[in-house]
């Protein structure tokens, strides 16, 4: 079955793409990004985020256009249903999933070349799956495209070993509010750490300089030993009876922590 027939059978228009608002911002740094949005946490029936206990409620899955759908439709609308279908395909028919994925990446390579942009691939836009699980014909995705730049954010410490194993894979570790010892260790080794703040980013956080990571998603172009500051985006779970309630969680850091060492 060719890719277009498979997508029609699944009832999806695409597996991934280069049209996410956050990913598009990277074009300002001459980077075109192909990204895949799966259903996060375990809402598909399959767990794709091993360390999501402190952030699943506030996942970006519930922001943007999908926030409106989640607040409008019980059980989610077309966006959530599409992400669930894609996630189930990954776990239940890996060859079909990978056939679609490589087909779309090949198209993105041509598009980026014609546009004079560097192509980057982010397969875990709202998931946290080990990229060695993206396998086709005995080779993982990093081996299939050794000349492409792949990158992700992760809360799984074990995944950082992949960035040391594959030169075409870049990882930014994420601060969950509960894993600072791991973050500090990685920062000292030259990694970057993403941290979520309220409405304003501090200049420093726990003794490390903070950069504004809201402007683009091309973290692999940033240096090491930095905090990649992100401002919190309101999600569907923040609303109760139609009214916004400020989240009470260690996942979102107070600006005052910037003075803490």
Could you explain how this protein is built, in words?
- The protein has 261 residues and is of the alpha/beta class.
- The protein has one domain.
- Helix content is 30%, strand content 20%.
- The protein contains 8 helices and 14 strands.
- The strands form 3 sheets. Strands 1, 2, 3, 6, 7, 8, 9, 10, 11 and 14 form a 10-stranded mixed sheet that branches.
- α4 packs across α5.
- The radius of gyration is 18 Å and the shape is globular.
- It starts with a helix and ends in an 8-residue tail after the last strand.
- The C terminus is likely disordered.
Radius of gyration: 18 Å
Q: Shape from CA axes?
A: globular
What fraction strand?
A: 15-25%
* Number of E strands: 14
Distance between the termini: 57 Å
Biggest beta-sheet profile: 10 strands, mixed
- Average pLDDT level: 86
| SSE-based structural type | alpha/beta
Write the H/E string, N to C: HEHEHHHEEEHEHEHEEEEEEE
Q: How many helices does DSSP assign?
A: 8
Outline:
This protein is α/β, with parallel strands linked by helices and 261 residues long.
Write the layout of secondary structure elements.
Blueprint: H1 3-10, E1 16-17, H2 21-24, E2 31-36, H3 64-72, H4 78-92, H5 94-115, E3 118-122, E4 135-136, E5 139-140, H6 141-144, E6 149-154, H7 160-165, E7 169-174, H8 180-188, E8 192-197, E9 204-205, E10 208-212, E11 227-231, E12 239-240, E13 243-244, E14 252-253
Parallel strand pairs: 2-3, 3-6, 6-7, 7-8, 8-11, 8-14, 10-11
Antiparallel strand pairs: 1-2, 4-5, 9-10, 12-13
């Amino acid at each position: 079955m060719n890719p277009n027939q498979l997508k029609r059978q699944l009832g999806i228009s695409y597996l991934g793409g280069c049209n996410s608002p956050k990913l598009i911002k990277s074009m300002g740094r001459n980077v075109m990004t192909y990204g895949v949005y799966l259903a996060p946490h375990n809402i598909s029936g399959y767990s794709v985020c091993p360390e999501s206990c402190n952030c699943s409620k506030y996942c970006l899955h519930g922001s943007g256009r999908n926030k409106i759908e989640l607040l409008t439709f019980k059980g989610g609308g077309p966006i959530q249903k599409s992400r669930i279908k894609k996630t189930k395909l990954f776990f239940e028919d890996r060859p079909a999933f990978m056939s679609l994925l490589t087909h779309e990446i090949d198209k993105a390579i041509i598009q980026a070349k014609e546009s004079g942009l560097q192509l980057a691939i982010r397969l875990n836009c709202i998931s946290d799956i080990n990229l060695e699980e993206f396998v086709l014909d005995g080779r993982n995705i990093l081996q299939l495209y050794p000349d492409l730049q792949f990158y992700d954010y992760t809360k799984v410490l074990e995944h950082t070993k992949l960035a040391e194993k594959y030169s075409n894979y870049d990882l930014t570790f994420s601060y969950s509010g509960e894993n600072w010892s791991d973050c500090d260790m990685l920062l000292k080794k030259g990694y970057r750490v993403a941290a979520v703040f309220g409405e304003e980013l501090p200049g420093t956080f726990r003794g490390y300089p903070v950069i504004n990571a809201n402007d683009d998603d091309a973290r692999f172009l940033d240096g090491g030993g930095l905090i990649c500051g992100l401002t919190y985006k309101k999600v569907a779970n923040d609303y109760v009876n139609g009214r916004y309630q400020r989240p009470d969680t260690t996942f979102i850091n107070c600006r005052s922590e910037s003075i803490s060492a």
